[in-house]
Design goal:
- It is a single chain.
- With 573 residues, this protein is an alpha+beta fold.
- A 3-stranded mixed beta sheet has the order 3-4-5.
- Helix 4 crosses helix 5.
């Protein structure tokens, strides 16, 4: 075997050496294209295909739109191509198929048997029947499991077998045992149970509702037996709950509307809706009636100012007249030949008399306009309505006659107020507004009362009085603070003025003393000079004399600058 492989490799190497570069590139290119094609084939063949919900195209655009809306509500991504609805996977397709069957959204042109897509791959009729039954059971189980509320399900189907006589034929029966998921309400929700029934009846031909049994695995009870007294009691409880919820919703809406409307006429704190009570009838009724109207021969022309309508009460459709006349003797029957007749004596006396008979019959069929009216009441109706509304008067503050901004205060420091009640005419107008807003109907014994009632505002007024007292105290405190600050400022200014005054007097006194000492010193110097006495001056005296001479010289040379300097000193003083 190794020798064979070596020969093969040597031949391949020999062939590879004989071919040129172009041929080698071509071989590599062909091999690469083949490898890429194989990879793409595996990729596309392994990619999942988008299954269709129904195997038949939907031609009705409105039905297609309704199905699309329902899929949007379930947040299911889908695409529509040529009337076919495609989803991402088979599980989603089965779940949506079950949902559409439950809610009667399956188009009429869709065959219910196409939902199960049963293929027959056996040759004998017995195997075909067995495989068909198994396929139906499995598909039913898959569709039931696709419902979110169901955890597990088992389906058992008994198909009827044809017999010679139809009355001897056993009906087709289906039993389904389900286990609900925790927290699901499918065992009490009749709509969901009816949806499962429809799904089963659509999947099995010739199946009636009476032959479908849906069992709860946990309790073993039949949940689609709607005639069960317990289920009927549950239905009654659900109806009462819905009625109470609907009643509360309507009462809250009426209360809000009444309060919002009256709050625009009065302030919101003056209106209080005390009570709203109503009796609801949630049963739906359908009324059939026939209306007969005259026949209009000539309708009214709206372009003319007068009415030219011509009507008749009826039109003759058929008329039958029958007339009978007879004149002559009557015939009295006798008995068999050879025997005396049995005619009573009274009739024998009338024999051979000439009589006359005349009969006129007239049969006329008249027709009129006939209109059939079918009126369906809304799901709920108000049987009786009772509303009570209280309106408070106005409180006005009393102001000081001498001042339009100061309120009057009593001995306890409270604001004096005056109460103004609501008038009867204003109450009647408010009651009329409320009656119009709620649809008041005296025929059904409705009651609407709008009364004047003085609300207890003690806490509100005490809080307002406390705020007023606090505001007044704050004003007094601020006033005294301002006065104190003013007095402090005045004291500071007075202190500064007095300080400057005494400082100036002290400086003037010192200057006067210094000037006197200087004068005495100069006089002494002059006296000494006159006597020829050599006086030795101190350093300070020499500096002072030099400064004095310099100041005198500057005043002589620059008198304006010296004057400005003196003014500045005086201002600073």
């Amino acid at each position: 075997m190794n020798e064979w492989l070596k020969r093969i490799l040597e031949q391949i190497q020999a062939v590879w050496k004989r071919i040129n570069v172009t041929q080698r590139i071509l071989i590599f290119s062909i091999a690469g294209v083949v490898i890429i094609a194989v990879i793409l084939l595996f990729v596309f063949s392994a990619s999942p295909t988008r299954p269709a919900i129904f195997q038949t195209a939907i031609a009705d655009e409105a039905q297609l739109f309704r199905i699309g809306q329902r899929l949007d509500q379930e947040n299911v991504p889908y695409s529509i191509q040529e009337g076919m609805i495609f989803v991402n996977d088979d599980k989603t397709a089965m779940r949506m198929r079950s949902l559409l069957v439950r809610e009667d959204l399956v188009p009429k042109n869709i065959d219910p048997w196409a939902i199960f897509d049963v293929e027959r791959w056996t040759s004998t009729q017995f195997k075909d029947d067995i495989n068909l039954q198994r396929a139906i059971e499995e598909k039913l189980r898959q569709h039931i499991l696709a419902i979110d509320d169901i955890d597990s399900a088992n389906v058992s189907l008994v198909v009827s077998k044809p017999t010679t006589f139809r009355e001897d034929e056993e009906p087709t029966k289906v039993s389904v045992a389900i286990t609900a998921k925790p927290g699901s309400d499918i065992l009490q929700n009749h709509k969901k149970v009816e949806g499962i029934e429809k799904l089963i009846s659509y999947g099995v031909g010739g199946l009636t509702r009476e032959n479908i049994a849906i069992i709860d695995k946990m309790t073993g009870t039949q949940i689609n037996d709607f005639d069960d007294p317990m289920l009927q009691k549950i239905n009654e409880i659900d109806i009462v709950k819905k009625q109470l919820a609907l009643k509360k919703e309507i009462e809250v809406k009426l209360r809000k509307d009444i309060y919002a409307g009256l709050s625009k006429l009065y302030t919101p704190d003056r209106v209080e809706v005390l009570n709203i009570d109503m009796d609801l009838d949630i049963f739906k009724r359908t009324t059939d009636a026939e209306e007969y109207t005259p026949i209009t021969l000539i309708p009214d022309n709206p372009r003319t100012p007068y009415d030219e309508t011509k009507v008749v009460e009826y039109i003759t459709q058929k008329k039958l007249i029958e007339m009978q006349e007879f004149e002559g003797t009557g015939f009295t029957p006798q008995g068999p030949p050879g025997s005396e007749g049995q005619t009573p004596p009274a009739y024998k006396d009338l024999s051979n008399l000439v009589g006359r008979y005349k009969k006129n019959l007239e049969n006329i069929v008249n027709v009129v306009n006939k209109k059939i009216i079918k009126q369906e009441d809304r799901p709920w109706n108000i049987k009786r309505l009772s509303i009570s509304v209280a309106v408070d008067g106005k409180w006005e503050k009393e102001y000081d006659p001498n001042s339009s901004t100061d309120v009057m205060i009593d001995e306890q420091g409270r604001i004096q107020r005056k109460y103004i009640p609501v008038g009867d005419e204003e109450l009647r107008r408010a009651q009329s507004l409320v009656e119009g807003a709620v649809g008041y109907n005296p025929v059904r014994s409705d009651q609407v009362k709008v009364i004047h009632y003085q609300f207890d505002r003690t806490a509100e007024f005490e809080a307002e009085n406390d705020r007023y007292r606090s505001q007044k105290q704050l004003q007094v405190i601020i006033m005294w603070i301002i006065i104190g600050i003013g007095m402090v400022i005045v004291a500071i200014i007075a202190f500064r003025l007095l300080s400057r005054y005494f400082e100036r007097r002290r400086r003037l006194k010192e200057e006067e003393l210094a000037r006197q000492h200087q004068a005495m010193r100069e006089a002494a110097l002059r006296s000494a000079e006159e006597k020829g006495v050599d006086v030795e001056l101190s350093v300070e005296e020499r500096a002072r004399l030099e400064m004095q001479e310099n100041a005198i010289n500057m005043a002589r040379e620059h008198p304006e600058d010296v004057a400005q300097l003196i003014r500045t000193w005086l201002l600073e003083e």
